[in-house]
Amino acid sequence: MSIIDSILNDKDLVSLPNVAMHLLNMLKKEDIDVREISRIIQSDPALTMKLLRVANSPLYAQQKQVTSIHQAIMMMGFSRLTNIVLGISIFSRFWFGSKKGASELMERFWLHSSTTGTISKSIANKLRTNFKEREFIGGLLHKIGKLAMIQYDVNKYLKVAMAVQKFNVSDILAEKKIFGVSHVEVGERLAQSWKLPEELVTIITSYIKPETLESNKELPALIGVSSLLAEIYGASFFKGLPPGYDIESDNAWKVLSASFSTLTENGLDFLTDDMEDNMVKSQGFLDAMKA
Question: For domain 3-290, is the CATH number 1.10.3210.10?
């Protein structure tokens, strides 16, 4: 059995909650019944409460308070809502099912992931492009392989973190040295076992190297840049960036700026002028999830 098979040998790990599975299946249908969506979500009271808290958090800044799932669908749209539900379901599965000794790593991981998602939303708005909330869920899940590795052996992942900090190596190199595989490889298999949309699988496999994609590079590049910004601005998760790392030299930045002239014209400052607000929104999302 390969190391990835061993990591993913947890039946709870490789199956999404029923509500998330139902919604993903409904995405494939041409005709979508809002009442049926509401019924599916409301069948899980804990999920319903978290969804309403997130919908009313600073992350979405609704002008009117959202008090029901039907209202949330009407105000936010089915695609956006589905992605939020998917994120909440996966967050809850890992957070509350985390093994002993993993809570500190989980806290730090989800801060990085939610910050990446929040920054991605902010950048997408500034670039006036619509990724239908995939920028946020992509930020939440881009390093999901790391969580599977933590679940599998938290002590081994602590050794990864120590190697990154002590020897100034990248997370990929440290993971391959200690686990024999990287979080990208594990994340790809996990996403495939969940039957996630191909766009999300591509983010997980290519946010580090979007330049290798033949098409649709922009969203993985956006997640890659946002992840780097999260690392630098106080929400790091053992990436192993050298001090003073120049984001504008990174391939993800080059791909993104090649598609959006606004970045070439305005540079990195255009994206970082609201980082404090992004950190507040990210923490608001985590507070809503854990309440």
Answer: yes
